[in-house]
Specification:
With 479 residues, the chain is of the alpha/beta class. The protein has helices spanning 14-25, 46-51, 53-71, 87-111, 191-202, 222-235, 327-341, 370-375, 391-396, 424-427, 429-436, 441-445, 456-464, and strands spanning 3-10, 30-34, 37-38, 41-42, 115-123, 128-133, 140-149, 153-155, 168-169, 183-187, 206-210, 238-240, 243-251, 254-261, 264-270, 272-275, 279-281, 314-316, 355-357, 362-367, 380-386, 402-408, 414-421. 29% of the residues lie in helices and 26% in strands. Keywords: Cytoplasm, Disulfide bond, FAD, Flavoprotein, NAD, Nucleotide-binding, Oxidoreductase, Redox-active center.
Length: 479
Amino acid sequence: MSKQYDLVVIGGGPAGYEAAIRGAQLGMKVACIEKRVHKGKPSLGGTCLNVGCIPSKALLDSSHRYESTIHDLGAHGITTGDVAIDVTTMVARKDKVVDQLTSGIAALFVGNKIEWLQGTGKLLAGKKVQFTPLDGGEVQTLDATNVILASGSVPVNIPVAPVNEQEIVDSTGALDFTTVPATLGVIGAGVIGLELGSVWRRLGSEVVVFEALDTFLPAADKAVAKEAQKILTKQGLDIRLNAKVTATQIADGKVTVNYNQAGEDKVQVFDKLIVCVGRKAYAADLLAEDSGIKLTERGLIDVNDQCLTSVEGVYAIGDLVRGPMLAHKAMEEGVMAVERIHGQAAQVNYDTIISVIYTSPEIAWVGLSEEAAIAKGHEVKTGQFSFAVNGRALASGDTAGFVKFVADAKTDRLLGMHVIGASAGDIVHQGMIALEFVSSIEDLQLMTFAHPTLSEVVHEAALSVDGRAIHAIQRKRKA
């Protein structure tokens, strides 16, 4: 006799574990299938907690502290002796952070009486799920009233730079270098490439970033992308646009990279090469041929706005479906799917999904860029304000960047917020909340922001949309 569940979730990453927990909160009998083994033991949390968002932020923080100690403390009157970095200790700290968080998810499963099935899951016809244990135990068939598919994504590999986990690594391998490479190549100037390149640049690597496109950060507002490229280049990242890697060779522990930049063939040698050209949905052996699940032309699982698939009672969420591959988007989809199953009218607002790049300074945005707003037919008005004249930013030495707002010139409705600067990933949430409540720029202008804070730049940027910023000379505009 097969086991019966109200909900079976395949995948224990951010999307899957949040769905499982919410299901349990709503009184469902829940099983979550997860096959990941990290550092020799089964682990929940998916890519994000194990080899993505969390470990990369731990290394970003460590590298930032190291660089700040060397270059910034003198301005505060603080002197130190020789400063060194112990990469082994840094990586061990990263692993400790990961272990603490993944263990916390396991504890939440126990506390919510969620059955964690360690192995792989496959959706069969009739909402049955085939479970294959990691330990080689007997394959089981589970009966599920509802199923949520949340198997996540994996890095994209490219034939011209095959990953060997030694000289050439993907984003996972770049988290476990044992020494600082003297020279480092990065293929891809996207979020992952810029973040990992920043980590090792701060620790002393000479970093070259190859980007096949001829534009930098095309998804970002142009003003923000231009400022980001200027700042990151000044910091020492050698960003080469319109540079397509055509071949790699490994010899004597070095990687030779052949690339074509603007029609000219070039060659450069590195100690390490990181391949960061994006991610793709992971659906290996996830669906039986007769499961009834329809796919899109891109090979993603076809879902409606509430993540329901072509099979009633089966949902797909996160990196398996349309939209940005972001953990927070996946989490909210997991909660939405479960609440829809429970009969609630839950809905994710995809227009207010935040994007963040955790470089230094951080880059973040929500809503429409100026260019996207114009393309959608809006008559826009914009305003921006620099951190360079903000009291708190000056006091803390975080003066790079600015806040920019995009609004509809006719209705005054806020369309987008864009930030490059200290704590941008946190500050941008103010714009997200405003967008959720369909705020106008005037709403933000009329609010009182505490002094002295970085968020005062948000207020000034909102005021500048109508030429009213106090701490800048504004061009006169018609009343």
